[in-house]
Amino acid sequence: MENNKPIIEEISGIATFAVRHPVLRAGKPLSSCLFEGDKLRSTKHFGLFLNDVLVGVISLFENKNVIFEQTEQFQIRGMAVLENQQKKNFGSLLIHAVESFLRTNNKNFIWFNARIIAVGFYRKFGYQVIGSPFEIGDVGTHYVMFKVLTPKNLP
After folding, report:
1. Between β-strands 109-115 and 74-81, what pairing exists: parallel, antiparallel or unpaired?
2. Which one, of 107, 113, 103, 53, lies nearest residue 79 by Cα?
């Protein structure tokens, strides 16, 4: 019997390639899925499993962006859900998992480069755009987005 309840677990950076490649790097070499910092001990990768199959990923890097004053900053990268599993709230679950992880570890600042088509999605979770749109190589137009998390005992 299948269990249709999604489960989020910490995974290896290499494991993220199974979702990063078809969603974020389609048509590019598999090596393009390796991000700078993927192998650092401070980097955390999370996978969303449905019936023991990896269908979504998100990575969290300890990485400082000079436009922000916070000393401790964490960057989301490589968030993706397989196309046939999209529109099922899995992206929301991945965002909540990362935020919960940071709150549990008394960290409160997240930023990332959001593809222009994803800005509306992130705004639903209280992320804000800062600055002007910019291009990332052959990936497309992005905005920097950020959020200051409330402590875990607050909404």
Report:
1. parallel
2. 113
